[in-house]
Amino acid sequence: MQTADLRIALFSGNYNYVRDGANQALNRLVGYLLRQGAQVRVYSPTVDEPAFPATGDLVSVPSMAIPNRPEYRIPLALSGAVKKDLENFAPNVVHISSPDRVARKAVKWARKRQLPVLASVHTRFETYFRYYNMSFLEPLVEAWLRTLYRKCDALVAPSESMAQVLRQQRMNYDIDIWSRGVDRDIFDPSRRDLQWRQALGIDDDMPVIGFLGRLVMEKGLDVFSDTIDQLKRRNVRHKVVVVGEGPARGWFETRLPDAAFVGFQGGADLARAVASMDMLFNPSVTETFGNVTLEAMACGLPVVAAKATGSQSLVDDNRSGRLITPGAIAQFAEALRSYCESPALRAEHGAAGEQRSLDYSWDAINQAVADTYIRLIRQRRTEAKGA
């Protein structure tokens, strides 16, 4: 069986209506599969004005806006129209990418027809409740996720550290790696632009601490701002640049009144913004990989990150950045102070990170997923013959 023989039904809770690292990876995967001759049908909630055009054929599933977070939608049902479309498409493998109700119905639909199911894990959903004073729900959510993932034939995780977490949580016993790549035609140290910095009122020799990502509390905005407070109390010379948008922007601006908020940036503009920083600070513990970390490394920046899934697979502590115990404000501040006060250390660790980023080729990474589809199809056919 070849990649061109694949017919993949992909279920996503957010394929393109709000931009994030997970759905950009999914769109890139679909684009690669289509170029190899595979057939792909995507099922996801849709909106009138999505964040970016969808790659491939997109079928809308019934959904509703999430209360208090209306930019996101909850898939509600595998409707009759969607089921009919699915039957007509006749996939030979089903891929779910979010643990919602429609994904669960899709797994049930596939199992009834003896089709293999692959689940990709893009974020640590169980950790989100920590940011809303509901951490007591984490064990329940973990158990709820386990019931779904054990019904799948295999999982793919974006890093070995995340795969290990999934094994420890007993989510499944067949877990492959679907890493993430970086576009080296865009992300490169040469994108650094001192004039862009100057337009923000930043001197050429001012150390810039960057934040990159969607502005939501689960990205560790509280830890980021508390750490910056510590740097101020220590009289460490620095400037903060925040790249991204989100519902917590107002809160973040209040906590960081001296920061430069440049909003959403994409493509070459994003690469310019990242390369014009001097270090990236990523305190989040919810990412399973950390696309922003890899993009910063490709631009030659040292990264100070929480010692959590994703970052641990990318950052080499004390060589290309620092890995700090999650929530350890004083340790984060000390790591950032070292980079702020030593241009030589920044350059040394940034160069090591850029070298590490060369290992991440998108085509090779996405072919690994295609190979997993093919393996699962073969296994299911072998099982059927032996039955």
Structural description of this entry:
It contains 14 helices and 15 strands. The chain has two domains: 205 residues, Glycogen Phosphorylase B (Rossmann fold, 3-Layer(aba) Sandwich), CATH 3.40.50; 169 residues, Rossmann fold (3-Layer(aba) Sandwich). By secondary structure, it is α/β, with parallel strands linked by helices. It is elongated. The protein has a seven-stranded parallel β-sheet with strand order 3-2-1-6-7-8-9, sandwiched between helices. Strand 4 and strand 5 form a beta hairpin. Helices cover 41% and strands 17% of the residues. Helix 10 packs across helix 13. InterPro entries: Glyco_trans_4-like_N, Glycosyltransferase_grp1. It comes from Sphingorhabdus buctiana. GO terms for molecular function: glycosyltransferase activity.
- Average pLDDT rating: 91
Share in helix: 40-55%
- Tally of alpha and pi helices: 14
In terms of per-residue confidence, which ranges show pLDDT below 50 for 5 or more consecutive residues?
none
Overall tally of domains? 2
What is the strand arrangement across the widest sheet? 3-2-1-6-7-8-9
What's the shape?
elongated
Beta-sheet strand percentage?
A: 15-25%
CATH homologous superfamily of the largest domain? Glycogen Phosphorylase B
The name of the CATH architecture of the largest domain is: 3-Layer(aba) Sandwich
Number of strands: 15
CATH topology of the largest domain: Rossmann fold
The Cα radius of gyration reads 21 Å
What is the H/E string?
A: EHEEEEHEHEHEHEHEHEHEHEHEHEHHH
Keywords: Glycosyltransferase, Transferase
Protein name: Glycosyltransferase family 4 protein
GO molecular function: glycosyltransferase activity
InterPro entries: Glyco_trans_4-like_N, Glycosyltransferase_grp1
